[in-house]
Amino acid sequence: MYHNAIAGWSQGYTGKGVTIAIVDGGIDMTNPEFAGRISSASADVAANRGIQQQDDHGTQVALTAAAARDNTGILGIAFDATIQVLRADTPGTCTTPGANGESGCTFGDTAIAAGVDKAVAAGARVINLSLGGSNANGTLAAAIARASAAGVVVVVAAGNDGKSTDPAKDPNNPDPFPTSIQMAGGTNVIIAGSVDNTGTISDFSNRAGTEATWYLSALGQQLCCVYENGVLKVTTNASGQRFVTVVSGTSFAAPQISGAVALLAQAFPNLTGAQIVDLLLRTARDAGAVGTDPIYGRGILDIQRAFAPQGTTSLAGTLVPLPLGDTTGVTSSAMGDAVTGASLGAVIIDGYSRAYAVDLARSLRAAQVEPRLTNALATGTRTMAVGNRTMSLAFSVDGRGRHTWIAPLRLGQDDADRARVLAASITSDLAPGRRIGFAYHQGADGLVAQMEGHHEPAFLIASGPTSDLGFVRSSGSAFAYRHQLGRWGLTVSAEDGAALTGPVAFADSLARPRERERIARMGLAADRRFGAVDTVLGLSWLREDRTVLGARFHDAFGGGGASTLFADANVGWDLAPDWRLGAAARFGWTRADRTGTVAGGSQLLSSSWALDVEKVGVLGTADRLAFRLSQPLRVESGGLNLQLPTGYDYATLATTYGLRPLSLAPHGREMVGELAWRTALWRGALGTSLFYRRQPGHFAALPDDKGVALRWERAF
Questions:
Q1: Which of 272, 287, 307 finishes a domain?
Q2: How far apart are alpha carbons 54 and 98 in whole angstroms?
Q3: Residue 282 in 3-state DSSP?
Q4: Which whole-number Å values give the CA distances from 191 to 59, 64, 281, 283, 315, in the listed order?
Q5: Could you tell me if residue 93 is inside a domain?
Q6: In angstroms, rounded to a whole number, what is the distance separating the alpha carbons of residues 9 and 461?
Q7: Burial letters for 338-365: b for 16+ Cβ neighbours within 10 Å, e otherwise?
Q8: Would you call the peptide bond into 224 cis, given omega within 30 degrees of 0 as the criterion?
Q9: Burial code of 184-219, b = ≥16 C-beta within 10 A, e = fewer?
Q10: Together in a domain, 288 and 426
Q11: pLDDT, tens digit, for every residue of 226-259?
């Protein structure tokens, strides 16, 4: 339909239980479109004649607002609403038909005022005044003010003087009658102008003029249909063509708006009359000049927009904003496709305290699958390392020439552009059996492995478990200290940095860059060699301020972080002088902070592992060939338990809560196989890799990723 009433109907709102009061010239009681829906509070407020019409104007108005859904003739905007008929025509004045959609009757202000008061007493939510004329007198103005104070919406026709040549008429402004009604009723009054089905102002309609703020346009031109003796009136012209009779006038634009008021009143019983008026005016479809203008006023009635959430939305029962366009969460690589097909039913409240059922999972986003080959080859870095048995120093610099380094070092500008330090580490012996290390922009894992003398084959794609936290991170600074106690070595470590979550989209802006959220980690590892077998056992504690294993959720969920305990095991076996086998595993237990909507029991179990075999001297004496089969860190079970609003009672404004689990265990499981060969060549190092990634990023639906890489690098 032209005004998108289907948006309300599709949700089950038809005006049922809402009374529309029509102050007019009575109604055709025999018309089947109103069967069973004429209020017992209907009355003749001008005499004692009953409500049966003499002029059909009131019937046409009522049909436009609330004609039944019976698959014949006209369909009213609020087709299940109750009609309170308040006949106010002055006795003996309805003998002459009107023109341009006007009633032929005349109406006294005292009778109209009596009708308004009866409507308020009967509990009507909206009063339709498809009437016009001179300024309302004091009696009527007072009645309108009482209706407004009672929260009743008043919709009044703007008038049909658009083509008038009478100098006493002003087509550029509403009639004096609607203007005075608005002055008396204030924020509870809408003045209705007419447009045709193309959205063009009707030539007969009074324009918005000085009342543009309260003027709303609606379809009032060539509306179906006229009834006669309870059936559709069909006219046959001279050529024998049959057609139904249509009507036009601002009188029929007004009940379109009154019907919309009834739909909103049924759907959102918490709304005051002033709020309904504000909603309809604020959500009008713009027409004419941009914004409020002197022809169309606020625009054209749009029921679909009026039903949609408006203003700031938030979870019911909270004051934390949750705009519907916001991303509600971005998961981490350890969670893969976990949120695919997820459901998180909840209730949100808009700026008018209206409740809406939403699925918050629709705005959850999975972490992007990292392009490992590209990341491995496109580093653009150079590495330098120097040292001896007691001290070592290593650093990486950016050699791509894209950055400017302004620092107190005595470097020329060209040198600074070509050599931006990306990471650095230093380790030193303090005494026999005691070693300390520091790192900049490098995690503690590398320091610990260096101090333990741990050896792993060099792989481009298949990373090891002990450096995998399940999410992309940026390291800040790191510290490690190792103490040899007999055959055992004990290493303590600490580091800080940031979890880098995926880009987050917000309703009021474009997608933002990766979010950086602070993390810190402490660890303890014990290593020992048993003949040809070396072992490492470790525990580490990860603290995230704002993320949950790298996943970031909307502030409306509470904005908490998480703590994770990782247990690591690493074993290597030199089974022959040129053969080595290795195995490593990591298990993690994550507990999300209990804050906001995050309830107890929000825990994750994660794991990663790798199996290696390496052969030294395949094509020469110093080349190395290695194979690794691994699984990157993956959430094996668990997720968040969210205490979300699931119901809202308009009568008490109380929110009902329910526990909604969100599983963060992916459906897919990434498995990586890589065959890597490395040898010295031309004073540098040549490496090749052949790899295969099954279900990359733990996404079950993604095609397998496979490829081959060739890389040569040279130190400087």
A1: 307
A2: 13
A3: helix
A4: 20, 17, 10, 15, 35
A5: yes
A6: 55
A7: bbeebebebbbbbebebbbebebbebbb
A8: no
A9: bbebbbbbbbbbbeeeebbebbbbbbebbebbbbbb
A10: no
A11: 777 667 777 665 665 555 667 899 999 999 999 9
Which residues are CB-contacts of 399 (< 8 A; sequence separation ≥ 6)?
A: 380, 381, 382, 418, 419
- Answer yes or no: are the C-beta atoms of 333 and 502 closer than 8 Å: no
pTM value is: 0.81
Residue 556 pLDDT greater than 70, yes or no: yes
Parent domain of 189: 6-221+248-307
Number of domains making up the chain: 2
Residues 491 and 630 occupy one common structural domain: yes
Q: Which tokens go with 463?
A: 């990373």
Distance of CA 194 to the CA centre of its chain: 36
Give backbone dihedrals phi and psi of 670, rounded to 5 degrees, phi first: -75, 135
Cβ–Cβ under 8 Å, residues 159 and 265: no
Sheet of 314-315: strand order equals 314-315, 345-349, 355-359
Query: In a 3-state reduction of DSSP, which class is residue 475?
Result: strand
Residue 325 lies in a domain: no
Question: In what helix (H) or strand (E) does residue 567 lie, and over which residues does it extend?
Answer: strand 562-576
Mean pLDDT, rounded, for 380-398:
54
| Residue that finishes a domain, picked among 291, 307, 323 | 307
Q: How far is CA 167 from the centre of its chain?
A: 54
243 lies in some domain: no
Here the CATH number for the domain that contains residue 154 is 3.40.50.200
Count how many Cα atoms sit within 13 Å of the Cα of residue 209 in the half-sphere of its side chain: 19
The answer to whether 420 and 398 have CB atoms below 8 angstroms apart is yes
